[in-house]
Amino acid sequence: MRWGVVVFPGSNDDARALTVAERILGDEAVALWHKDRDLRGADCVILPGGFSYGDYLRCGAMARFSPIMEAVERHAAAGGLVLGFCNGFQILCEAGLLPGALVRNRSLSFICDLVTVRVETTDTFFTRGCSPGAVLTLPVKHGEGCYVADEATLASLEREHRIVFRYVDAAGRVVPEANPNGALANVAGVCNEGRNVIGLMPHPEHAVERLTGSEDGLRLFQSVQAWIRGGAELQVAPGA
Amino acid sequence: MRPAVTAEVADEHGLTREEYAKIEQLLGRAPTFEELGIFAVMWSEHCSYKSSRAYLRQLPTTGPQVLQGPGENAGAVDIGEGLAAVFKIESHNHPSFIEPFQGAATGVGGILRDIFTMGARPIANLNSLRFGSLDHPRTPFLVKGVVAGIGHYGNCIGVPTVGGDVYFDAGYDHNILVNAFTLGIAPADRLFRARAEGPGNPVVYVGARTGRDGIHGASLLASAALDATSGEKRPAVQVGDPFTEKLLLEACLTLMQTDHLVAIQDMGAAGLTSSSLEMAGRGGLGMVLDLGAVPLREEGMTPYEILLSESQERMLLVVKAGHEAAVQEVFARWDLEAAVIGRLTDDGVFRARWHGEEVCALPVAALTGSAPVYRRPAEEPARLEEQQRFDPRDVREPADYTHALITLLESPNLCSREWVYRQYDQLVGGNTVARPGADAAVIRIEGTRRGLALTVDCNSRYCRLDPYLGAVLAVVEAARNLVAVGAQPLAVSDCLNYGNPEKPDVMWEFQQGVHGIRDACVALGTPVISGNVSFYNETEGRNIPPTPTIAMVGLLDDVERHLTPWWKAEGDVVVLFGRTREELGASEYLAAIHGLVRGAPPWIDLEAEKRLHRLCLVAAQERLVRSLHDVGEGGLAVALAECSLGGPGLGAHVDLEQGMRLDALLFGESQSRMLASLRRRHLGRLRDLARREDVPLTVLGEVRGRNLVVGDVIDLPLDPARERWRRALERRLGGERYT
User: Fold this and answer.
1) pTM for this prediction
2) Catalytic machinery residues of A
C-alpha cells in the first residue's frame, strides 16, 4: 500500500512516519508538501506531529488552510483513510474533520511520557487488528492535548462508539490518575461519523520497536495494511 | 547624527583605556562609532577569550577520532560508517538569570545553529542547569522559566532533549547556569566550515530579519558581572523563534546537498559583525557589506544597531558567484528570505556601507588576530585550606539509616528529575534508546546498528573544595557514565563557568580547572573538541563555585547491547566493582544530612579508573552483566536505591563488609566504583575478567523482593520510597501536577 505523510512547515514527526511506513512496514511512502494539492495516490494520509507554523496561534489553526488540506478533505469526504497524530489530531479538529478541540494541558506544562490507552472500539480501519479492550502502551508528548467537546457532541461520540482510545491505568481502568492532560472522559482519540478519519494524541509511530520502548503501535499500522489489502482483494474478487 | 567617539564612550562599551589606546594605535586614527562597537564585541571576553586563551591551549585536542577540533562552530569525531558526530556545549547564563524563559530558549537555539552550520542534522540535546538553593525565593521562578524555555525551543524545532543534569546550591542564588548541548550527525566527508574563499563571491544573509534585540549581549551582558540593576539589561536578551529556526535548519541542510555553498556561519554573539569577521578572518580575506540591503524588522535602525544586533535565527553564507538565484530558490521553498548583502574582497579590510557612506573600514586581522591576550594574576584563595579540613569524628552517625537514606533520596540534588524531563520531548526523531534517568542517554544512529551515548557532568561542590580535583572528577564521572551504558568514550566538549577573571582567586580556580580537565582527558584518551568559557558569573562581588561542565560522547558498536542501571530479574547476583575507602569529604551526605560543605573530594587513581572501564566494556560486550550503574553522589546506598527504584522496580538484599564507619561505607563517594547485576552462572567469567584487570569485585547479594535491604541497617520499602523520590522536586518547587 502507499502511505502519504503531509509535511507542513514545522512538522517534526513526518520523517518518523515515513521511516515507519517504509522500513518497518515495508510499504511505499510519499511525503506530501503542504503547498501541493495532490495526494499522489496515497491510500492512507497521515497528518504528523509537530508544531505546524510554529503553533503560535491555536494549534493547527494555520495548517488547516494549507493547499494540501483541500485534497485531504476531498479524500476524507470520498471515504479515504486519514490519520492524525498529536498536531495532526489538532489540525483535523481545526479543519472540522473531527469533532471537539484540543486545549492546553490542565497542568499547563508540556508532558512527555509513556501512557496506557484502551482500545474502545475495534470497528475502525486502525483498530480492527486489536482485541476489544486491549491496553496499549504508547508515548505522548504535547502541551495542548486536553480533549474537549460540548455535552451533546460527547454524548453522540459515546453513543456512536466513536471514542477510539481512552487513557486508562495499567489494569485498564478509566481513572483520573491515568489521564495525562485532563481530557474529558479520558478521551485520547476519536473518529468521524464515517469512521475513516481518526485522530489521537498518543504517538503510535514512536511505538513500533522494542529497542525504543514499545511495539504496541505496530498492530495499529498493520490493521491499516490489512484493511487496504483486504479492500483490494474484494475489488479483484468479482472478476476472478 | 552619529555620536562622537571618545575614551568615555569606549568606557561605556566595556573597553579598558589600554584597549582603547591599542585600537587607536592599530588604526592610526580614532575609530568611528560603528567601529568602536565592533571592537567592543569582538574584544569582549565572550568573543575573544582574552583571559582564557593562554590556558585553553593546554587542553588535548587531537586524536585519531577527531575530524574537527576547537576553532569552528563545533567539533566533530569519526563514528564509523562514513559518519561524523558533531557536538558542542555553550552557556547562556546571564540572559537566563534576567529572563529565564527566553534566555534558556535562545541558548538552545544558538547551540542548535552551531551544529547545523557544520552540515550536521541535530539529533539530540542535553542541558546542564545550576540553580540557587530551593529555599531562595526566586529559585522556583527561575527553574520553571528555564525548563519551560528549553522545552519550548527543543520541542518545537523537533530535536529530542535526552538528558542533562540539575543541581541546587546556594552558590548560584544570584547567578544561575544554563549550559546547552547539541549533537548532530553529518557525512564525515561533508563537514562545512566557516572559512571564506574566493574574492568576488557574494555574501548572503538568510533567516529572520534583524531587529533591535540583543544589542551588546556579548559585551555588556555576557562579559560583565551582574548587579542589582541587571534587570535593566533585559533588552539585551534575545527572543527566540523556534519555528523560523526549524525552517532555517531544513533549508540550510538542503542547500548543503548542493554545490552552491562556500562557507557558512551562524549569527550568534555579536551577530552580523562576528560572523562576517570570523569568516573573512579564517580565509585571510576582506569583505564589503551594504548594510542597506540587510532585511530589517523595524524602521529607523542605525548602521551601529544593524552591525551589533543579536536577533536570532539568522545565518551568513558565502556562495559561489552566479549561484545567488539558485540559493534564493532553496530558501524560498521554506518561505525564507535570502538577501545578497555584500561580497568578499582581497584587501583584508572589513568595510560596511550605509547609503553610500563608508561607516567602517577595519583591517580584519586587527580584530581577529590582534585581540588582547591577558595572563591575569592567579592566587590560591586562603579559605580553601580551612574548608578542606574535616575530621569525621566531628560528625555523628545517623541513628536510623533507613531514614537517612530516605532523606537523601528526597534531597534536592538526589531526587528524581522526572518533573524536569517530562517537559521535554525525549522521543522526536524516533531514535531515543535510553531516555533521561539512566547514567547516560543512548541514541541509535539511524540506518546503522550503532549508537551514541551522551552525558553531561560536574560536581561543583568538589570543584569548590578542590578546583583541580573537581575538574578531574567531572571528566572521570562523565566517562564512567558512558561506560555504564556500554559505550566507549570518544571526546569532550567543555563549558567552563567561572566567576570574575579579574579576581586572582577566580583566575586560580580557572587555571586549576583547565589543568584538571587536561590531565583527566589525556589519561582517558578523550580530547576536547569544542567548548565555551563563561566568565563574570559574579553578582555584587559573589562568585559562583567553579563549574567546568563536561559533556562527553561515546560510541556503542551495537546499540542492542546498551545497558541500563536497573535490576532486571529476581535471583540475579549484585556485585560491586572497585574499592570503598573511608571518604566522606565534600559528599552529598555531609551537605544534605549535616549541612556541611567541607573536606577534600574523594581520591582518584586514573589508571584504576581505566581498568574499571575496560572491565565494564568487556562485560557489556560479552553480555555478562544485565545492569551497570555508576556509584556517584550519595554513595553505595543511594546507588543501590537507584537500581531498585527505576525500571521493573525490583528490590535487593545485600550485605556489606564493614571495617569503617557505617556512614562512610553507605554514603561515601569513593571513585572508580560500579554496581552490576548478572545471572549467577556468569559470575565465574566475570571474576576472571576482574582479576585480569585488577579490579576488586565484591559479591554484595542478590536481586529480590520489593524492598531494598542492606544488612540489618536499612530496610526500605520501594513503593512509598519511589513516590517520595519522584515527587520531591515538584513539591519543593510548589508546583502542582494534574496527575
Assistant:
1) 0.95
2) 86, 203, 205
